[in-house]
Write a structure and sequence with these properties.
Blueprint: E1 32-36, E2 39-42, H1 43-54, H2 57-66, H3 68-91, H4 97-108, H5 113-124, H6 128-147, H7 156-166, E3 172-180, H8 183-195, H9 200-205, E4 217-219, H10 226-233, E5 239-245, E6 248-258, H11 262-292, E7 294-296, E8 302-304, E9 307-309, E10 316-317
Antiparallel strand pairs: 1-2, 1-7, 3-4, 3-6, 5-6, 7-10, 8-9
Helix pairs in contact: 1-3, 2-3, 2-5, 3-6, 3-11, 4-6, 6-11, 7-11
Length: 335
């Protein structure tokens, strides 16, 4: 379901699990943190990557609280980067830094950039470089999907059709409430508003206070208290009901449903299409990941239900989530 005005998430689809299917040959080296096909993530590369992140005080605080889990997270990020590099090469797609910057401008439009990055650092341990790389990976997935005919960019007509499909889901209800002294006054006010809904601001001005809305407001039913939302939903447009309160009687006037114009949700519709493209391309990236095979140095953890977690001994094969078979060599020194 399309969510109007929902916060755009910088890391939509961000995954720290390195999931692949199939087993690769048993291979270990004390100087290698992970093997990705014919490529390697060296221990030195991993430690340097961790050190660069610790230069950011917010990431350093996050890392201190996470312990070894932070290093596993960084290793997962590095492996994901190698996988997407291989996928981009296999499918002949290119995403440059300017492409990523333009995408970030879309994602951050109207938002406090510093605040967004600070939250990602303190809450998820992700720095600006991690965000940049993740957005690059999303674009790689999208480009792969498009190049392989798994997705086509929506036309204006496509977006209009989608808007028509989801219009009812985007509906908000326009209502207001005015607190009056007693029930007879509430009855009179309701009658006045029903006869002339446009008079609401003038009527509300006669009963100013914390329990009176000066003008009608539009809200999603999900944003209202459940009981109030149910009563409003059961109320015909341009009518209302009253609720006794400690301050008097609240007259709730329901103007009816209102719908956002197409231009107000165009960006959300485009984002929905982008997410579909990235998801379609992600399946093709997964196939590349399976072909490559990924092996992690056991000092950094073992796989449990698709997650790289603390463990001891053995070669760690990173399998698809739900892959129950134990990798060759697990629990014993690698060869």
């Amino acid at each position: 379901m399309l969510k109007r005005r929902a916060a755009r998430v910088l890391l939509s689809g961000f995954v720290l699990t390195v999931a692949v299917s199939g087993l690769t040959a048993c291979r270990t080296s004390p100087n290698v943190a992970a093997y990705v096909g014919d490529e390697q993530v060296s221990v030195t590369e991993l430690e340097n990557a961790v050190a660069r992140r610790l230069e950011n005080p917010e990431l350093a605080d996050f890392a201190a609280a996470q312990g070894d889990e932070f290093r596993r997270q960084v290793l997962s990020l590095l492996v994901q980067g190698e996988v997407h590099d291989a996928a981009a090469e296999r499918y002949g797609v290119q995403v440059d830094d300017d492409d990523v910057r333009r995408r970030l401008e879309v994602l951050l439009a109207g938002r406090d950039e510093d605040r967004e990055y600070s939250q990602l650092a303190t809450q998820r341990g992700l720095g600006r470089a991690d965000v940049f790389e993740n957005v690059r990976q999303q674009l790689v997935s999208k480009e792969i999907a498009e190049s392989e005919g798994e997705w086509e960019a929506p036309t204006e007509a496509d977006l209009q059709d989608r808007y028509a499909e989801v219009r009812e889901e985007l509906a908000e209800v326009s209502f207001g409430y005015i607190t009056v002294p007693d029930e007879p006054t509430a009855t009179a006010v309701l009658a006045q508003l029903a006869a002339d809904p446009a008079a609401y601001p003038a009527v509300a001005a006669q009963y100013q206070g914390q329990m009176t809305l000066p003008a009608l407001e539009a809200s999603s039913p999900s944003e209202l208290p459940p009981e109030l939302a149910q009563q409003i939903a059961a109320t015909q447009p341009n009518t209302g009901f009253s609720i006794p309160t400690e301050a008097g009687v609240a007259v709730v006037f329901v103007e009816g449903p209102v719908y956002p114009p197409f231009e107000d949700v165009r960006t959300d519709l485009e984002e929905e299409a982008f997410s579909a493209a990235a998801a379609a391309g992600g399946k093709l990236v997964q196939a590349v990941r399976e072909d490559l095979g990924v092996t992690v140095n056991p000092r950094y953890g073992v796989l449990e239900k698709g997650q790289l977690v603390p463990g001891t001994g053995g070669v760690v094969e990173i399998l698809g989530e739900g892959g129950g078979e134990e990798p060759a060599g697990a629990g014993a020194p690698g060869n």
